[in-house]
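Q: Got a minute? One more chain.
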Amino acid sequence: MASQADSPRGILIVEDDYFIAKDLANGFADAGWEIVGPVGSLAGALAITEVREIGGAVLDVNLDGEKVYEVADALIERGAPVVFVTGYERASLPDRYKNVPLCLKPIQTEKVVAALRNAGDL
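A: Always. Here it is, folded:
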């Protein structure tokens, strides 16, 4: 299996908690993937998706009170796999995301890496 590091498309990490973002970035980097971000705001994440090809993303659902759904929709439309990380239960997510993998906080980085890998057959 080729690693994401072999591709110009990186893994976008969108998380507004510094420590969680750092753990995710380290976990994906240790797995050999190129990291885009971490980004802690909706505006920052949208800006990156406009200028960079993204191979997959880990998205915190709630970014300082703003929902990340616009970023998720843009990436899903392009065929990039997405995993949500959140403290919310699946029932709180819109129905259109029923097939998007969900990792509940507190997260285990290895499980998030595996969820994204499985979501995109990466």
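A: Residues 18-30 form the longest helix (13 residues).
Q: Perfect, thanks.
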